[in-house]
Amino acid sequence: MRAARVALPTTVDEAVEALTATPGAQLLAGGTDFCVEVNFGLRRPPAVVALRRVLELRRHAVTPERVILGAGTTYADMGGGALADALPALAAAARTVGSPQIRNAGTLGGNVATASPAGDTLPLLCAMDARVTLRGPAGERTLPLGDVVTGVKRTAIAPDEVVVAVELDRRPGPQQFLKVGTRNAMVIAIASVAVAVDIEAHRVRAALGSVAPVPVRATAAEEHIADAIDWRAPGLPTAPASAVARFGELAAQAASPITDHRSTEAYRRRAVEVIARRALERCLSRAA
Amino acid sequence: MPPDGDHVGAGPAAERGAPAAGAEAEAYVQADRYELHVNGSRMAVEDAWLGESLLFVLRERLGLPGSKNACEQGECGSCSILLDGVVVCSCLVLAVDAIGSAVETVEGLSATAEVADIQAALVDAGGVQCGFCTPGFVVAVHDLLRRSPDAGEMEVREALSGNLCRCTGYGRILEAVRSVQRSRARAAGAGGS
Amino acid sequence: MPAASGAGTTGIAERVAGGRVSDRVGDSATRPDGAQKTRGEFAFSSDLWMDAMLWGKTLRSPHVAARILSIDTEPALAVPGVRAVVTAADVPGRPTFGLEVADQPVFASDTVRYHGEPIAAVAADHPEAARTAAEAIVVRYEPVDPLVDPEVALGAAPIHPDGNVFRHLVIRHGDTSATGDVVVEGDYEVGMQDQAFLGPESGLAVPSEDGGVDLYVATQWLHADRDQIAASLGLPPDRVRLYLAGVGGAFGGREDVSLQIHLCMLAMRTGRPVKMVYARDESFFGHVHRHPARMWYRHHATRDGDLVKVEARIVIDGGAYLSSSNAVISNAACFAAGPYRVPNASIEGYAVRTNNPPCGAMRGFGAVQACYGHEAQMDKLAAALSMDPVELRVRNALERYDRLVTGQLLTGAVPVREVIRAAAAHPLPPPPDPAAPMMALPGGAGATADPVHVRRGVGFAVSMKNVAYSEGFDDFSTARLRLDAGVDGEAVATVTIATAEVGQGFVTLAQQIVHEELGVSRVVLAPANTVDVGSAGSSSASRQTWMSGGALQLACATLRAELVVRAAELWECAAAQCAFDAGAVVHQPTGGRLSTLELLAPAPLETEQEYHHRPTKALDADGQGDAHVSFMFAAHRAVVDVDPELGLVRMVQVATGQDVGRALNPVQVAGQIEGGIAQGVGLAVMEEIVVSGGRVRNPSFTDYLLPTTLDMPDVVATVVEEPEPDAPYGAKGVGEPPTISSGPAVLAAIRAATGLPVTRAPVRPEDLALAWPEVDTA
Predict the structure, then answer these.
(1) Which domain holds residue A24?
(2) Residue B2: which of A63, C737, C354 has the closest Cα?
(3) Is B9 in contact with A81 (Cβ distance < 8 A)?
(4) Chain B, 174-193: which have a CB under 8 Å from a chain A CB?
């Protein structure tokens, strides 16, 4: 307990090296999940590898084709600037996380690695088919998000791997993120939804949060609405109200919510129906 | 790693004041003995345990109990400090992870008088009752007004939404913030003309 | 003396810096401890530190109800750094404690009766060692089926030797067989709220050489704690010395003993100072909560809208131990009908023991729960009568010289109509702005609503509450006052009073009173403790302004009289020829003056005075009697925006009129009103300890939600000042009324916005959304 070591790497390679060198060492990024567990005696790390000084993890890049976010990108980073312009739904999600204090510390990589069903960035990442790059002693590998986040607080990340970056392809078109909680700020999602309307590929992407062990794509809803949208309409893509309502119903059917101390299965299903519909409505009325 | 592109950036925190690399940064440090930079001074921490939060170390080892321990899970803001100039919850910073960073607590801010008007306004407006949330609010308000001196009502409320108060219902606290904004704006105006 | 940790900070032995007091009673004086608090220099109970101190940690039961078969502390003692482990077997004196009856074990010995009941405590040289050691204690439990339904508990086998019914009381008033032409009935429910004071349970116990112990702790009533601790330690009370450490809020949650006895036992066992701080999750198990309630009501009225009779059956769940449940159900029953003229009443109240978490005092104390019931009923009645809800309330409002359903004649100020009109007079907020930022709509940062989804509603509620304790309890407060000539040409008044300052601002008022009464500007508050002065009673029941203010006023009057006597002796005249005036004694025939300072030159003056309110009486078998000292009234109007499809609520404005008697410090009164409304609306829409099968499901601020700056509505307040005849300075208490009808007003507003019945607080999104008709999307 007293003789434990802390590694303070400044590069990803140093971080990987430190992880491999100290068996049982745990990665610490923003601390917004890690430190809560330590404070309440639920986690007693024998050693820690702290990532805060790995500046390369805090960089991001926005190109016409894609957005690459370093795993150390904080919610505050996601909430403004070029990142928010490129991914407004991610910015909206980041804005719902915790408090300003939490948003300054919590990271994208942490949100992925913690893999909470209520992780606020995850629905948008899931909707956009995000890819996660991991680096371990054997090198780097890039996997679809769905292959990384595998269950409730379970991931495919190896103990000696570091989440390096998350990459999304850019799709032209409006996107929305809505999150239901019983308080106006600082609340764990009871249900959330990310919807992106791809006006080039004539597709809709929708993913749900907090209503399944991992974020889920509402595929049937996506397919249904893509057919119903009038993509040729001058200006805004439109769709009949009944089709939009059906989109909400199908999205609700894609959910497998539970009843817990925060909410009930029935409410979560209703909430998904409503916020999926509303998210789509906003996209249709705001398409460029 | 993110390649070059139309925009390559780093988050504001990384740009503003990253932990110092350099001579004192080592690959490994012992968790039980290290040094922190707090309120402009180097302070030695001894006989510590790896799992101690920065909040715990400030309060119980470094003689700085001004930051408060209302929840120790990042839900109340009573432990707010500035870490490399950014407001965070010190209960969510592992103390050893603060090595090489600049830590500023309510005590440090009070000593330099840069929050004196915020503090006076809180008291005058009746925004202090039991006072447990007060240091956290001083730090959060200081951070807000530094970044956004002319913040409107919604922005102020959002910026302070991570600081809970159970006594006041926030009315007097928000009044104090408005009062500081007004007098700082007047002083700036007077200085400029 | 312990200090706040580190050098240079204010230890608890420091006197609250007086500064110069220029404010009188009625001014918005600045609180004397405010500046320290803003600098982080004010020492709260969790800030204490002493050389060589150990850390304490409690082991709590993971089971709701169980037999304890064995407790093995050896593994804990083997953990490095551990100095002591104590259990029930180590309690030297009385094995139980309690505010009304000592029915609660210091440590569970053979029976666990609630989730989180303390089993043992450990002292070690580091909190982590203490935690590891507590986890190492091996306890063999045999879980049993818990009793969690209060209705079932009424008839079930007792889960405690004292039985399952704490109290059953009945109020029969007037003609209980009377009926009205218009009858409305309903069932209502209020969930378990938590005080959620921010400063966690904490303290420092220091063993003393006389075989006793000094305890520095945050609490609401030093002397009541002391007496219970002394009984359990088997010590005479004067060897248990309590010193008030800075209190980070209380709201009723610090009235009962929490860690005090455990901490003292550890200190005495180890011979070392021991500090204990509950983390927030433990805090949810460490103190009593507000009683959940289920209420049935039936209101009868004439066709013109005059109340004829109120019937009610109220059951409050007191959880595993008594705490102050008897007084809470009494309040709930006494105020079940609300602040209205009710000629006939039949009210039944039960406080029941279950294996749910123990419940006790929380700001509002039974009147809150009843208010949800009676105000929902008044709205139902108004609807049945096709009458405006405010008009119905005005019509039936109590007036001076009316009688309550307990038969008590109202002889004080009863400005019920005035508070109703004051609340109603505030301008409504502007209608919802279509261009409002999403953050300002229901759903807040989650951006779930568009303006088209939002409906606004307005609701009204009125309440009453008593001041101080009831039913014959001889409540009192004690103030010691000393006047010195001081060292720099200014008289100094030193106030020693055991009143627990919990944030409400009594320290400010104390200075104002002394300045007002004696004209002294240097007023120093000595530390509050049980050593230097008698009991001030509890900081609860909105009583301290009246009781401790009264004690201080009495002490000032005593010293004023002594100053006059001194002057008369110096002038060799009759005391009757002298009068005290603005800091001096005046010889009326000649106009000669002797200042307080001159009169103190030969020697200081000191007095200790006890203030009692007039006697009250117990309630008889029909619930009739002059049981209360005085009453406070308040009205609230709430404006809410609701997104009914999602069941999300945003509070827009709460307007209030509150009967305060006299505002002795207007800024502090405003703070109490706004803070109380925050707690009231919190219960209405977001705050609940979720208990299932007796287990607490949400012991954290992640899931026990307090209103944030983005949740609080604008508060507009009018204080109605009609001086209370018996009260010092004519002032009633102000702390509780804002918590009582604010929540019911929010529920009424949600009903108005949605047309849904909404009979439960807190309202959950599913209560609205799943009852909301399907939206027509065509």
Answers:
(1) 6-50
(2) A63
(3) yes
(4) none
